[in-house]
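[Meeting: bench + compute handoff]

Bench side (C.D.) handed over the final construct sequence. Compute side (W.E.) agreed to return the predicted structure before the next meeting so the bench team could plan truncations. Sequence as handed over:
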Amino acid sequence: MNIREIGKDFIEYLVPGILTTALEVAALIFLISQIHTRGVWYLFAVGVTFVIGTTIQYFAVHRFIFHDSDREFKEGYAYFMAIAVIGLILTLGLVILFTYVMHMPPIRARVVTALIVGVWNFFANYFISFEMHKKHTIEDRATNRK
């Protein structure tokens, strides 16, 4: 496994991750400001925006970063969404922890959570959804033979 390739992929993964997180946080701010007054719980808004952001991110990551994965698109999406569900559970749990226990405002709690869950998502998707460790291992072996 090539650490440089993983690092390169991680840096590239950050771009759509940051963009979709920004979109997600903007949608969250909108939902909280517009719908919260009508009795919608902010954690429901966190969940909805998380799923939307994750779906957009899968398309971007699949197209621009892990396009050379051997895993089929639909199969990769299923794994990506399963990992996203774990990420959603982590997200909701951490937002609750940061908001209720640490008394952080919900938006700040969501941004801090995005950093933590983002690292989890990268490694889980790298190794499971896209199986890039297999790709890099094969490429490394081929390079070493030359």
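W.E. noted at the follow-up: Residues 3-35 form the longest helix (33 residues). C.D. will use this when planning the next construct.
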